[in-house]
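Dear colleague,

As promised, here are the two records you asked about, laid out in our usual form so they can be pasted straight into your sheet.

NAME FIELD: protein one
SEQUENCE, THEN STRUCTURE:
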Amino acid sequence: MAETTFRIAYTHSMRRLLGVLACGPSVSGIVVTDDEVRVWMGWAFQATIPRHAIATVETDDRAVISVGVHGWRGTWLVNGSTQHLVRIQLGIGVHARVLGWKVPLTTLFVSVEDRDEFMRLIRPKGPGGGARKAARARRIRLPSPAINPGLKPGLARDGYVMNEKS
């Protein structure tokens, strides 16, 4: 497959605003090759995702009120429009650059103009995709009250919580 370029979707007003901030359509895009998917939005976001790391790709029509680059703890939204979102779930975490800082990337929401063609090209082949499992959110495992009767449910502390009788 040759290199295929996609444009990030922008609304008219965001095209102008983000263009002034050097994150507009002329300095943003997505490139899909046989080995990787590169996504960038000006100076604010750059990511290179190996194709084998992609676990699932699906449309996402949830209501989004923010535009630009937003994220936390591995989940990032890169958009110029609140529509045409694609959710890319990675089976292995990779790193992206946000404002020049290296950040973890496990889920990417991106607005794409030609969403269906983009999804067709990057969707993993075969059952289960290219990665073994989709990344899961980290869960904090609290000690069981049966094992530690001094710990009250709902309190996650490093030390023991005293009983009322103490």
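NAME FIELD: protein two
SEQUENCE, THEN STRUCTURE:
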Amino acid sequence: MTETWHFINTGSHDPYYNMALDEALLNFVSRGEIDPVVRFYTWSPPTLSIGYFQRLEKEIDINKVQEKGYGLVRRQTGGRGVLHDKELTYSVIVPESHPAMPKTVTEAYRIISTGLLEGFKLLGFDAYFSIPRSKEEREKLKQPRSSVCFDAPSWYELVVEGKKIAGSAQTRQKGVILQHGSILQDVDIDDLFDMFIFKNDRLKNKMKEAFVEKAIAINDLSDTHITLDEMETAFKEGFQKGLDITFKPLTLTPSQLEEVKSLEEKYRSDEFLYRK
């Protein structure tokens, strides 16, 4: 029998709210207050999110981020820097004990990302999962040279025409899996690379070229402009098909909204951003 999960599209919010709600949903699932949930959202202002373990001052040109008017926030999940601008962001929050969820991060990643795969297919793309085949490719994954996400397809990344088209990250806390990621509608590569610190321009340009070779946005692949609405419709259906679930809407209670509010303060704080 098809299982029913919660679904919530929170639309456009600032980075602190976006990260606080993902963490709050993890807490609600952990406490059994809500069923597994899929959430869609966008960002206002456009924001650079950095991975939990990234060293902000060493890797990011903070002045450049402010100069460009972008938000800046640290995620709960690992991985590298992502510019959230013209994209649809998704999160999937599900108990680790869920019968459909494999024990390993990589395999769970594949299962959850099947929702993305089906969404891309509904938009007419010939998407598939990347599997690093050679020993050399697998070794490379262990030594990411760049602070920029999207520059290398790793295990089970979504690929179209050989290029990475969605980037995701996962964390497991309190018995719950949280996976969230970006589905790029368009990407401004110059803007993105300006915000990272490189040893020199030569290295920056080399990394930029590598990025262009390896990553792509939906509208670079499509003959017609694909709107955010079209993306939301396709990926909502894609998750239902890929995970064999149906959706029911999620409405948060006043006390749950209070919890989101208090978590926002954490993401706003320099303590968390700089991880002092």
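A couple of things worth noting about protein two: The longest strand covers residues 3-13. The chain has eleven helices and eleven strands.

Best,
R.
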